[in-house]
Amino acid sequence: MALRGVRVVELAGLAPAPLCGMILADFGAQVVRVDRTPRSAVATDVQGRGKRSLALDLKRAPGAAVLRRLCCGADVLIEPFRHGVMEKLGLGPEVLLQENPRLIYARLTGFGQTGKYAKSAGHDINYLALSGVLSKLGRKNENPYAPINLLADFAGGGVMCAMGIITALYERTKSGKGQVIDASMVEGVAYLSSFLWKSQNLGLWNRPRGENLLDSGAPFYETYKTADGKFMAVGAIEPQFYEQLIKGLGLDSDKLPGQLSFSDWPEMKKKFASIFAQKTQAEWCSIFDGTDACVTPVLSFDDVASHQHNKQRSSFIKNDQEETSPRPAPLLSRTPAVPSFERDPFIGEHTEEILLEYGFTKQEITELYSEKVIEVSKPKANL
Ligand SMILES: C[C@H](CCC[C@H](C)C(=O)SCCNC(=O)CCNC(=O)[C@H](O)C(C)(C)COP(=O)(O)OP(=O)(O)OC[C@H]1O[C@@H](n2cnc3c(N)ncnc32)[C@H](O)[C@@H]1OP(=O)(O)O)[C@H]1CC[C@H]2[C@@H]3[C@H](O)C[C@@H]4C[C@H](O)CC[C@]4(C)[C@H]3C[C@H](O)[C@]12C
């Protein structure tokens, strides 16, 4: 796999950093997740695929010393805390990069390492709001809404940070040097929205929220309810595809307003809605499948993996716990990601094995354990 041999230390965080670590693990990196000890009641990392867990108390000096030794042997550190926490622990970039100049020190935060909010708590919706993108999301006359925590936490956070790490790893092959990655989710999601900025003068966004081409204003870029309470997604933007949509709906475009007649969009939406409501999702699929009308079923998590197209590409995988989840993307032809099919690690499950791998002696491990700096948890055998 492309990242085979890359050693990553991921400090346990809430959602963005775990996705970043999982992406690296899926593509072959050896990811050690450092969990807190005393451990939290509930393992909150549901993206633990392919990782191993070491439970370590960073607030104790011997614990911080353990992390420093791990980072001396690692290629990447991912830290998910607000600005200043690592410095307070004596684990800031100056310290760790001094001891390992090749280390790629990735700091994944909401607001970044500087600026008025750098030390403020926040979540996806806050970062999305501060990026400006949230102001564009939502239907006409409704409040802006955040699409779950997909955009800032994951797209602008975990994925953007993984890109930064892989870019820095590539650069290091030439310079031999590591560096600090300041991955701000505000900036990550703002960066993703470059298209919105660059298309300002194309007339795509100069109407109020929810009245534009791609933000639920246009009847040909919308979802519609079917007779069986499911939905179809319509994305027939180009005239030639729009013509196929009209045909599939049994309408005659000569008797309709022009596709880009903004003032007619509300009425056209009502017309489309009344037609889509007359047939089931399966019936609409039999009409539109195989055409260029850009009409697809809105699949639920229950049926997405078994849909013919997704099945043909094995887009979803099932681990040995029978848990379904998306296969890693993108698909590399020669060195594809090979995700682990094992269950996620328990907190502290691999503490001893990891420390031995990183050069700690049995004696040192015993002392760390007796001082409660580390925790070792062996999964209970299924009796
Ligand atoms: C996971 C579910 C989905 C959450 C997604 C949500 C929508 C997000 O947006 S997540 C993105 C959050 N933001 C960031 O990641 C940006 C950077 N991080 C931060 O800004 C902050 O970390 C923070 C604001 C997120 C949290 O601040 P906090 O003060 O808690 O922490 P920090 O200031 O960063 O400091 C860290 C402190 O921890 C110490 N530490 C760290 N590691 C160690 C260690 N190994 N040993 C010792 N100490 C350690 C460190 O020293 C710092 O200490 P100090 O503060 O003293 O300096 C979640 C959605 C719902 C959740 C569930 C729900 O809330 C109910 C339960 C609640 C229960 O408490 C936990 C289980 C829940 C089931 C809970 C589980 C999940 O969280 C959810 C499902």
UniProtKB/TrEMBL annotation:
Question: What's the catalysed reaction?
Answer: a (2S)-2-methylacyl-CoA = a (2R)-2-methylacyl-CoA; (2R,6)-dimethylheptanoyl-CoA = (2S,6)-dimethylheptanoyl-CoA; (25R)-3alpha,7alpha,12alpha-trihydroxy-5beta-cholestan-26-oyl-CoA = (25S)-3alpha,7alpha,12alpha-trihydroxy-5beta-cholestan-26-oyl-CoA
Which keywords belong to this entry? Isomerase
Top-rank taxon: Eukaryota
- From the record, give the transmembrane residue ranges: none
Kindly name one Pfam family recorded for this protein: CoA_transf_3
> Is Isomerase among this UniProt entry's keywords?
yes
**Region (Disordered) location:** 312-335
Report the sequence similarity comment from the record. Answer: Belongs to the CoA-transferase III family.
* Task of the protein: Catalyzes the interconversion of (R)- and (S)-stereoisomers of alpha-methyl-branched-chain fatty acyl-CoA esters. Acts only on coenzyme A thioesters, not on free fatty acids, and accepts as substrates a wide range of alpha-methylacyl-CoAs, including pristanoyl-CoA, trihydroxycoprostanoyl-CoA (an intermediate in bile acid synthesis), and arylpropionic acids like the anti-inflammatory drug ibuprofen (2-(4-isobutylphenyl)propionic acid) but neither 3-methyl-branched nor linear-chain acyl-CoAs.
Mind telling me what this protein is named?
Answer: Alpha-methylacyl-CoA racemase
